[in-house]
Amino acid sequence: MRELAGTFLILVSMAGLAIGGLWAFMKAAGAEVDICRAGEGGCTSGWYYAVPILVAALVVGAIGIGLVRSKPQRN
Fewer CB within 10 A of the terminal residue: the chain, N end or C end? Predict the structure, then answer.
């Protein structure tokens, strides 16, 4: 069960890294990936969304790898 949970977390991490990485790449390449609300002035930079997604994905991936690599405890 521990390995299954770890594998699931690794897969979730990979999806987060793909989404966050693509968003960061598009922002760095100059694409308009900012979040703008209709009727309000100003926009929120895409970096404020890409960086937390990447950090969360790295943390979740590290937890998943830890679960997969940990040895089962014997009683």
Answer: C
Cα–Cα distance, 50 to 28 (Å, whole number)? 11
Whether residue 63 lies inside any domain: the answer is yes
Residues 17-46: tens digit of each pLDDT: 999 999 999 988 988 778 888 777 788 888
Residues spanned by the domain of 13: 2-69
Q: For the whole prediction, is pTM greater than 0.70?
A: yes
Give me 19's structure tokens: 């989404």
| Token pair in block for residue 25 | 């790449």
Percentage of the chain with pLDDT > 70? Answer: 99
Within-domain flag for 75: no
Residue 26 lies in a domain: yes
CB neighbour class for 64 (10 Å; exposed up to 12, middle 13-18, buried from 19): buried
Look at residue 19 and tell me if it is in a domain. yes
Three-class DSSP category at 44: strand
